[in-house]
Specification:
Helix content is 39%, strand content 25%. About 7% of the residues have low confidence. A hairpin with a 2-residue loop joins strand 2 and strand 3. Strands 1, 2, 3, 4 and 5 form a five-stranded antiparallel beta sheet that branches. It is an alpha+beta fold.
Length: 254
């Protein structure tokens, strides 16, 4: 009889100890959930955070106030608002072209950018994947960087983008979400080449441009007059700005 009593007591203590451990862990989870999400329910808190992230635009590298004056010193005719609107429109066109698998939706776009979009479309076709971009919002676009090299300039624009983005295969969702937006960032590169006909393929795109009157080198990007003889060089300063490429900003590619 005594043995049964001891066994029963141990069993009750065991159940009580297990229950106490459960309550202790539950309390720890609630406290952690309150610290992280401000709610007792970890699952509910995670859902709320996901919803907030899906509606909160990403911060972009805003260097416009610093870099725009530098660009305008080199190119007095540079219109920042015009180029910003153009970059945003081309980004939207790229998303539409990928979704529709139709390059004709890219209007007045550089060959390099068309090839980028074409490669994405072809990769999806090879994998029998349908990639979709819907409900695209471009919240903000700023100048992120300005690089000057021999014969060419590169302006990097960064945009905060929100969209519905997902991939399907054989009717199954394999990536992304159909009911929740993704907030991300994209870089769009604007490329200027002083004189495309004189680009040296072996010089990494560098341009050797000379004055047609005295033969002196034209070293200033955007120059309309030769700094040596004063002759006009506008006719060979073609000022070709194009959307060079675009890419999503990730931890691997910034």
């Amino acid at each position: 009889m005594t043995g049964w009593i001891i066994a029963g007591t141990l069993a009750v203590c065991g159940v009580g100890g297990a229950w106490g451990l459960v309550m202790y862990l539950r309390g720890k989870i609630r406290r952690a959930s309150r610290d992280l999400f401000g709610t007792d329910s970890f699952v509910e808190g995670y859902k709320q955070q996901s919803m907030e992230l899906s509606t909160t635009p990403k911060s972009v590298s805003g260097m416009t106030r610093l870099l725009e004056p530098q660009i305008q010193r080199d190119f007095p005719e540079f219109n920042w608002m015009q180029f910003r609107d153009m970059a945003e429109e081309k980004l939207r066109q790229a998303f539409m072209a990928i979704t529709a698998e139709n390059l004709d939706l890219l209007k007045d776009t550089s060959q390099n950018m068309r090839e980028e979009v074409a490669n994405i479309i072809q990769a999806n076709r090879n994998e029998d994947v349908k990639e979709v971009y819907e409900d695209v919002d471009i919240h903000q676009t700023e100048i992120a960087n300005y690089e000057k090299k021999a014969g060419r300039c590169l302006i990097i624009l960064q945009s905060a983008v929100g969209y519905l983005h997902y991939k399907e295969k054989d009717g199954r969702l394999i990536a992304g979400k159909k009911d929740m937006k993704t907030q991300t960032k994209y870089n769009v590169e604007l490329l200027y080449i002083q004189d495309p006909s004189k680009v040296n393929a072996n010089a990494g795109g560098a341009v050797g441009l000379t004055c047609p009157h005295c033969g002196a080198p034209v070293t200033n990007l955007g120059a309309k007059f030769c700094e040596y003889c004063g002759s006009a060089v506008k006719e060979i300063n073609l000022q070709v700005w194009c959307l060079h490429r675009f890419y999503e900003v990730t931890y691997q590619k910034v």
